[in-house]
Specification:
Helices cover 31% and strands 22% of the residues. The chain is of the alpha/beta class and 521 residues long. The protein has an 8-stranded parallel beta sheet with strand order 8-14-15-16-17-18-19-20. Strands 3-2-7-21-22-23 form a 6-stranded mixed beta sheet. A 5-stranded mixed beta sheet has the order 9-10-11-12-13.
Length: 521
């Protein structure tokens, strides 16, 4: 027997300038919408209807984080959190305390993440000498907030048989440190469930999550995801972005028929190939044309070469696979677009996407628009970048960077995400940065290049409709209309009428996925 629910007396957002009062839901799908009386009439054909009075509360479609690392975020919950450290000494002291307070977690070594030299009193990177002060007996690996750089102590370098005078590793070398630590699968499952719980409490109903760095090396993660989703209902819809470190590895995965899930519903799906073109702006490894302000000879790192990118795209095109590319610097973005264009068929029918797309010229944005290339933005990056970017990139280029409004005006399909655990999971922090272009302390007062501010409606549409389009679900998810999945969030504040400064403090009263309540305050 079908489950029929009617929610009424609500302010339901359906698209720019469009609201309704009520929704009628049959099982997991919206079947009617309109005024209270219209939906009441539509409900008459059903024998039993559960009616929910929302007493004027604001309802939006569930947030769909278009680029996140949800499983990695879960793992991170069990590691040293270094985001608040304001000096190298604070990092050392914090980790020494962590060793004493968590003996069971550090038997094999200490892992931490979140440090940022731009927040340190001396602005200097951590070194192996700093980490040797924490311990010389066990490996210590501390990953920078961006995930594109880490520092190792002498013991870790010795075990890795890696020669590095300062202990700093970047890009793919960071992943080598995973070999130092065994993974407790049962603990990982619990941490993944906790990460889901936190996401649902924030109104996130879908994630597009890159938690596998090479499918041939991490098939156990596929098995873990399948088991968790087969045995649990109250989880975010999960679309996996799969990283590959070589074309040969991708071809091997395809030959083994690994590139799919055995669970065939809309809660767990396989997504695009994820590639890295460059590193991060904060670590000065983003690939830029003109070099960095404080080091013109440093033009960043090319993780995947232009030729390799084209080879990846040839394999993807032959197998009907979307390609999702991390590109932050202007050269990285331009070359990624050139590679897309050189291998695209039928006007980007596979919806290849530039992820991050931070440092752009208007010329680059025009090329993206003309070729129907998608952009996955993370406005929450402005929380840090608006203070840092001026020390990395010339101001004339910054004017056209982080260009959310221009991208929409050019007709580019844009999505929003957080890249958590690089930044906070909270969608309302993300929306605040998109709408006000301020950090979480409301700086700068007038906003950072405020001409690129999004309206609340534009930002929510990118976070819902735009993110759903990126995963080929725009006709099933992201809107609160008949025929769409009943994935919605009840807010404690009317986000369309509140002061801009209050957006980041909005809370979630209820999160619903497929008509089923998965979180209630």
């Amino acid at each position: 027997m079908s489950s029929i629910k009617m929610l009424y007396n609500a302010k339901v957002y359906q698209g720019q300038g469009k609201f309704c009062q009520a929704l009628l839901i049959e099982d997991d799908t919206i079947v009617a919408c309109g005024s209270n009386s219209e939906v009441e009439l539509a409900a008459l054909k059903y024998q039993s209807v559960e009616k929910l009075d929302l007493k004027g509360k604001c309802v939006v479609a569930g947030f769909n984080d278009s680029h996140i690392h949800l499983l990695k975020y879960g793992r991170q919950l069990n590691r040293a959190q270094l985001q608040g450290c304001k000096s190298r000494k604070e990092v050392i002291d914090f980790c020494k305390r962590y060793l004493k307070e968590n003996p069971d977690l550090v038997k094999e070594g200490l892992r931490g993440r979140g440090w940022n030299q731009d927040n340190f009193d001396d602005g200097k990177l951590l070194t192996r000498d700093d980490l040797d002060l924490i311990s010389q007996d066990i490996p210590v690996v501390l990953v920078r907030v961006c995930g594109h750089m880490c520092c190792c102590n002498s013991k870790a370098l010795e075990l890795l048989n890696f020669d590095s005078e300062d202990g700093i590793l970047t890009e793919n070398d960071v992943n080598l440190t995973n070999a130092l630590f065994n993974e407790n699968i049962e603990l990982t499952k619990k941490l993944f469930m906790e990460a889901n719980r936190r996401a649902l409490a924030l109104g996130i109903t879908s994630v597009q999550s890159q938690d596998i760095d090479d499918l041939n090396k991490e098939t156990d993660i596929v098995a873990l995801l399948q088991e968790v989703y087969q045995n649990n209902r109250q989880l975010c819809r999960y679309h996996l972005q799969v990283g590959f470190d070589s074309v040969a590895s991708l071809e091997e995965a395809l030959a083994k028929n690994l590139y799919k899930f055995n669970i065939a519903d809309e809660r767990l799906t396989m997504g695009p190939i994820k590639l890295f073109k460059d590193g991060s702006l904060g670590a000065r490894t983003a690939l830029v044309y003109d070099g960095y302000i404080d080091n013109k000879n440093n033009k960043g790192l090319e993780v995947v070469t232009h030729q390799e990118m084209k080879q990846f795209l040839e394999v993807a095109q032959a197998n009907g696979l979307q390609v999702f590319v991390h590109a932050i610097g202007d050269r990285a973005i331009a070359e990624t677009c050139e590679a897309f264009i050189s291998r695209m068929e039928k006007g980007n029918s596979l919806r290849h996407t530039v992820n991050h797309c931070q440092i752009t010229s208007y010329e680059i944005l025009n090329k993206i628009a003309e070729n129907n290339i998608l952009i996955a933005y993370q406005p929450i990056f402005l929380q840090y970048d608006l203070h840092m970017a001026k020390n990395r990139v010339n101001e004339n280029l910054l004017e056209s960077s982080y260009a959310y409004k221009t991208a929409l005006d050019y007709g580019i399909k844009c999505s929003l995400g957080t890249d958590c655990p690089v930044e906070d999971l909270n969608p309302f922090y993300n929306l605040h940065c998109a709408v006000s272009r301020q950090d979480l302390n409301y700086q700068p007062p007038q906003g950072y290049y405020p001409k690129e501010n999004l309206t609340v409606e534009e930002a929510i549409d990118c976070y819902t409709v735009g993110s759903s389009y990126q995963q080929f679900m725009e006709n099933r998810k992201g809107k609160l209309e008949p025929g769409f999945l009943a994935d919605y969030v009840v807010l404690d504040t009317d986000i369309f009428n509140c002061e801009k400064k209050d957006i980041k403090n909005i809370g979630v009263l209820q999160t619903v996925i497929g008509g089923e309540t998965v979180y209630k305050k």
